[in-house]
Each structure stands twice: as C-alpha cells, then as structure tokens.
Amino acid sequence: MKDSKPSVSRDLFDQVMVPNYSPAKIIPVRGQGSRLWDQDGRDYIDFVAGIAVNALGHSHPRLVQTLKDQGEKLWHLANIMTNEPALRLAARLCELTFAEKVFFCNSGAEANEAALKLARRYAYDHYGEQKHEIISTLNSFHGRTLFTVSVGGQAKYKQGFEPTPGGISHVPYNDIAAMEAAISDKTCAVIIEPVQGEGGVHPAKEGYLEAVKALCEKHNALLIFDEIQTGMGRSGKLFAYEKYGVVPDILTSAKALGCGFPIGAMLTTDKIAASFTVGTHGSTFGGNALACAVSEVAVELLSDPELLQHVETTAAKLTSRLQALGEQYGMFQDIRNCGLLIGCEMSPAYQDRAKDLVNIGHTEGVMLHVAGPNVLRLLPPLNMTDEELEEGLQRIANAMAKMAG
Q1: Is 298 marked within a binding site?
Q2: CATH number of 74-302, picked from 3.90.640.10, 3.40.50.300, 3.40.640.10, 3.30.590.20
C-alpha cells in the first residue's frame, strides 16, 4: 500500500480512471457565480454550467447554506421512511406544474428509466401486454442505462452493448408524418425532448408537439417529455412544455433540479402513477433529505419570475452577439436556441470543428461545449450577470479570431 498522496494532475486521470471520458487538461478547483478558477489560479467565464446543471452558477450562497444546514440534521433514510424536505419538494413541484405525483431518483437517466417503466406498466395494467412499444426520435438522447440508451436515437451509444431491449423504434424529429406512420394501438409511449439538446439544439417546430399529443391521445399512448436539459428555467419558463403549451402525461427532470447536487424526478398524474404500486420500482438514494433540501431552494430560486425574465433578456443579447460574431468570422451558418440553450452550427468552412473552438476557448479563458462535432453549444448559468456576459463574449470573440487565424 502506497503511503504518499499522488500528485493531482490531468495525468492522474489516465492512471486511475476508467477511460470512458476524455476531460480537458485544465482542472477547475473553485467557482463563484459564472466564473471558475483552475489549479494555477487562472479564471474562466463558464458558458457550460456543468452541461446545464449549475443553473445558478457556482457556490450560490443560498444553496451552500442549505446544504450546510441540512447536513447537520439528516442526510439519508432510504425509502423505508419519508422525510420533510422530500415531501415539501414534491408538493411544490406539483403546485408549479401539471403533476399530481412525483418520484425522486438520482439522475436524468434514472428519471427516464422510471418514466419508460411506468409507461409500460400503465399500458400493461389498462390494455394488456401487447401494448408495449415505445417510439423515440432520431438523434435524441435520454440517458446511459441500457434501456435509456436503447430509447435514445443515436446508434453510437448502443454499439457494442447489444442485444438491447426490444419494442423500441425511432422516427425523424419534427416529422409528424413519420410519427403518424409509426404509432399504433401497440404503442404505449412516445418520448420526446421539446428541444433536442445533445442532438444539436433543435427546438420543436410550431405545431409538432401538439400533433404528437393528438396522435398519442388517439392511440391511448402516453406522451413523455424529457426535460432533463430544457427544464428548470433554461427555456425562460420553469419547464419548456409551458412555452409550447402542450402538457405531457409524464415529465422527467434532473440536471438543474439540484443545481449541482445529484437529484432527478419523474412527474405524472394520479391516474398514471397508480400503476407504480408498492414494490414495482424504487431507488435507494432517491428522495434523500440532503438532495431534496437543496432542490427545494433551487426550485424556489429558478421559478422566480424575475429570473425567468432575465433568462429571456440574456438569451436575446447572447444570440444577437453570437450572430454578429458568426458573420464577422464566417464561422456559424445557423444559430438555434430556446432560452439559454443555444446551438451555433459551424459553417462549411469550419465543418466539424466545434471542438477546436472549445479547446481554443480554454486558452482564452472561456468554457464552451459542443452538441456533436458541428454545433457549438452554450448553456450558461441562468443568473449570469451582464458583466460576466460581456467579459465572456469578449473571450469568445478572441477565441474565434484566433481560430480564424
């Protein structure tokens, strides 16, 4: 057994971590607001927010204090007991949404797993075992469990893990004719992201979600909205379904639900929830007091109308400036967004070079992300200040200038 502590560097990752990730060379050690500092004390403006997780930035004082306070009271009981923070959080989510029942878990993948299992169980209870088919969309992303990666519409994530669960099909996103051709009385559920995030930041077109909802009602299939990335204020509404005016039967949430503390949730109605009878599903850590206490405050802050208006205002500024920068350097051919979920599609001259811009951004002190090889993705904290926004945009401009040579 080694006595000395290893030197903590990026090289240590390659020595001790399973190689399923390839993180950047820099290692952030501290964050405040929309700013991060690395081991060398260099600062970065953060336009990634932990991939839409740190919706209130880093080290938000209310969240930090809540974590400390709850940490001195009660952390975990498992599902053999309930706890006050979980009940308060569930009640608040029901109050703010269409939901009447909530199931807590630890991540977006687990929330989607629960939603898909519930949809099959509900269909089994009401219509029989033949009604089990699930329809998803191509280029969608719903998690990394074997079930959710099978439902996701990107073949690369399933490769080498076959055979995957059956009864799952995929149709093009925003193509209602394809959905109509695929759905039948054997369909138990359709799962859709109101905005495809990992698939390239593609918002649902006008009328698409309404038409899918109508098809689901016609065939007695449940409509599941995956709002892992679009939820918790990112769209300018608490959940994007409000923006589209289409109410799902089941909704999943995670990422910003805990603003960095791991928690996921599945929201649904009394009638549908009834199929999850005692023992049909569970989660050891799901709904623990520590996570729910933090999430309760996160929900309070993220549902504030002033913050949601700030999201809309900041999104308009950011997309406008990115459009101008894209034209200046001939780098973006399209900019798509829903609130502060923004995708900049690279122009033909910079085809598949989104990651290059991310890497150059690190040298200029700005953190950016991708949604596939050809889309630069920005998901800044929802409470990013005007000062942080301006400084970050200047650093993005510097990175683009360097890339343009």
Answers
A1: no
A2: 3.40.640.10
